[in-house]
Design a protein that fits this description.
Layout lengths: L20 E9 L5 E9 L9 H5 L5 H22 L4 E6 L1 H19 L8 E5 L8 H13 L3 E7 L6 H7 L3 E4 L1 H4 L6 H16 L3 E4 L5 H10 L3 E2 L17 H8 L19 H4 L5 E2 L5 H10 L5 E5 L5 E6 H8 L4 H5 L14 E3 L4 H10 L2 H6 L1 E5 L2 E6 L1 H18 L9 H14 L3 E9 L1 H8 L1 H17 L7 E6 L2 E6 L4 H18 L3 H6 L1 E5 L5 E5 L2 E9 L4 H7 L1 H17 L4 E6 L6 E3 L2
Parallel strand pairs: 2-3, 3-4, 4-5, 5-6, 6-7, 7-8, 9-10, 12-13, 20-21
Antiparallel strand pairs: 1-2, 1-8, 10-11, 13-14, 15-17, 15-20, 16-17, 18-19, 21-22
Helix pairs in contact: 2-3, 3-4, 4-5, 14-16, 18-19, 19-20
InterPro entries: CBS_dom_sf, Cyclic-di-GMP_PDE-like, EAL_dom, EAL_sf, GGDEF_dom, Nucleotide_cyclase, Rev_trsase/Diguanyl_cyclase
Protein name: Diguanylate cyclase
Organism: Cupriavidus malaysiensis
Length: 603
């Protein structure tokens, strides 16, 4: 007989429904590794068609049946919880339909349900999705009765269905339970990570606590711990049981006590921000189609910084654009003023201007201008709102914005390998130092890469860099080790894995073999190529090989590092790399001494 089947089952008062029993799943506090309490779940008879909650509630065909079944499940949970003397709080599930019933007449039915079975201070009411909320403001008023009774409440399955932002704002719950769909895979999905970060910020504004549901893996648990999530629940922490163990599982305690930090999944993107055409536009006077060229010239003289003007019709719709330089160059031609000064400006204007709605992203603008003529870039662009003129922008400003965005993106993620760049690397180093856990910083460099890149072209060079990135990724435990691309042929690996040395040596051997195979047969047989060095002299360069300089950071050295942080790690790693490039096996290890931050080689 299973553990769940050993608990007594209670028969509901509503005729025709099978008996039910309560099972309990632990909820663990991550800041102190203590039990917050248990969520009570209902089960039908084991082995029957109604063993699962969904099948059981499928028997309740109307509101009367739903309320009756939820009340009986709560009575079963309260009786078993009281009989076992389980520690912490008891989380009871109720649909909004049942809660409206229980909270009527100032919560008289809720008070009768709890009775002497459980003090209000130890009960948390979970608002489930069994029935729709309806009027959120009205429901929030009903829930105020719970507060008056001394009960806390939780919003269940946040992130799906009825558990939305509007309800969060109205209820201000004590706990928000994040649906398992947002937690599952959070150790590898940067989007889920960012969503959870946003939820944490929102819930903290209401002075509430987040409970992560559906935690099944240690990696997910570690990420939640390091993000500062209040509590967690799931199979990793304990399956629902009729008679649960009244303590936190040993493996969860070990994970919470570990000083190793989780490796957060990195957001990989092209770097395009929320910048739009509206942010690049400037106010500028406009011309009508019949405006004469002499008036346009006067406008340019009155506005020395104006690169172009737009020609619009009476409704404000753009018809053409007049480029300042092109226009004034024409005026410099002999007799141009006499011939064209009194003619309509639209005649010689560019009647195919590039127009962008003010909400169009910079990415879309760049794609359009990349396909346009060189004159279009010089003329700039017109910004519209609902088809009407709003302002004007220059091609130079757009190019500058694109350049800034891409430079910023390269600091977060290398565009070739899509590995994290300098900013995420420094952030992870700071987290490692704050944790006080020992780690190894491995600076990876490719010997003789530049001659290879010069000889065979950037395309072949890029392939070699991507190959190095792939080999280094294979040499990492994604849950413990952080791989970043510093730039060019330089990488940095931050190891927490105990077997880091074996991983590094395997990466060196694997890369060296693959790099050699990327040379033509003749160069491979010669062991390298003749190419120009940095001074333009013809020199023989061996085939590209990997060098790894390792900085061993002991737990006792964190005091010095907390003062100097990633800058000290960076300088030590650069010194280790220089040693590694001279080492026969391409590997050198430097010890970072804590007391005085001196670096000494390890033999």
């Amino acid at each position: 007989m299973s553990t769940a089947a050993s608990a007594p089952a209670l028969r509901p008062a509503l005729p025709g429904l099978p008996p039910v029993q309560a099972v309990f799943q632990p909820i663990v506090q991550l800041h102190d590794a203590a039990l917050l309490g248990y969520e009570a779940l209902v089960r039908g008879p084991e082995g029957s068609p109604y063993a699962s909650p969904d099948a059981l509630f499928g028997l309740a065909h109307d509101s009367v049946g739903t309320i009756a079944l939820e009340l009986h499940a709560a009575r079963a949970a309260l009786a078993s919880w009281q009989e076992q003397g389980l520690p912490g709080r008891l989380f009871l599930n109720f649909s909004p339909l049942s809660l409206r019933h229980l909270l009527a007449e100032r919560g008289r039915a809720m008070g009768a349900l709890l009775g002497q079975r459980a003090p209000a201070s130890r009960v948390v009411i979970e608002v489930t999705e069994q029935t729709p909320i309806g009027d959120a403001a009205g429901f929030a008023q009903a829930m105020e009765v719970l507060r008056a009774m001394g009960l806390q409440y939780a919003l269940d399955d946040f992130g799906t269905g009825h558990a939305n932002l509007d309800l969060l704002a109205h209820l201000s719950p004590h706990y928000v339970k994040i649906d398992k769909s947002l937690i599952r895979g959070i150790a590898t999905c940067s989007r889920r990570l960012e969503i959870l970060r946003a939820v944490l910020r929102m819930v903290s504004a209401f002075s509430g606590h987040v409970i992560a549901e559906g935690v099944e893996e240690e990696d997910e648990f570690a990420v939640l711990r390091d993000l500062g999530v209040s509590c967690a629940q799931g199979f990793y922490l304990g399956r629902p049981q009729a008679r649960p163990v009244p303590e936190v599982s040993p493996h969860a305690l070990r994970a919470l006590a570990s000083r190793q930090i989780a490796v957060f999944p990195q957001m990989v993107s092209s770097g395009w921000s929320g910048l739009t055409a509206g942010a690049l536009m400037r106010d500028a006077p406009t011309m009508r189609p019949a405006t004469v060229n002499d008036e346009v010239l006067g406008c340019f003289h009155a506005h020395p910084d104006l690169h172009a003007v737009a020609v619009v019709d009476e409704a404000g719709k753009p018809l053409a654009i007049i480029n300042r330089q092109h226009f004034i160059d024409r005026y410099a031609a002999p007799f141009h003023r006499e011939l064209y000064g009194r003619k309509a400006c639209v005649v010689q204007a560019n009647r195919e201007p590039i127009c962008f709605d003010r909400h169009v992203s910079v990415e879309e603008m760049a794609q359009v201008l990349a396909r346009a003529s060189q004159r279009a870039l010089a003329d700039g662009f017109i910004v519209t709102e609902q088809g009407r003129y709003a302002g004007i922008g220059t091609g130079a400003e757009l190019v500058r914005a694109i350049t800034d965005i891409r430079m910023q993106a390269a600091r977060h993620a290398n565009p070739l390998t899509l590995l994290p760049g300098n900013i995420p690397l420094n952030q992870h180093i700071d987290r490692l130092i704050a944790s006080g856990n020992a780690f190894h910083a491995c600076y990876v460099d490719l010997n003789h890469f530049k001659p290879y890149n010069d000889q065979y072209g950037y395309w072949k060079g890029d392939e070699m860099l991507k190959g190095a990135a792939a080999i280094l990724a294979q040499a990492c435990d994604p849950a413990r080790d952080f791989l970043g691309h510093v730039g060019g042929d330089d990488f940095l690996v931050l190891y927490q894995s105990a077997d880091w040395a074996e991983r590094v040596r395997a990466a060196i051997d694997s890369f060296n073999a693959i790099a050699s195979a990327m040379y033509p047969p003749q160069a491979r047989a010669a062991g390298g190529i003749h190419a120009e060095d940095r001074l333009g002299r013809k020199t023989f360069f061996p085939t590209v090989s990997m060098a790894v300089g390792v900085v061993r950071v002991g737990a006792s050295g964190m005091a010095s590092l907390r003062r100097q942080g990633s800058s000290l790690i960076g300088s030590a790693a650069a010194a280790a790399k220089r040693e590694a490039k001279r080492a026969p096996d391409g590997l050198a290890i430097i010890e970072l001494n804590a007391a005085d931050a001196l670096r000494s080689p390890v033999h």
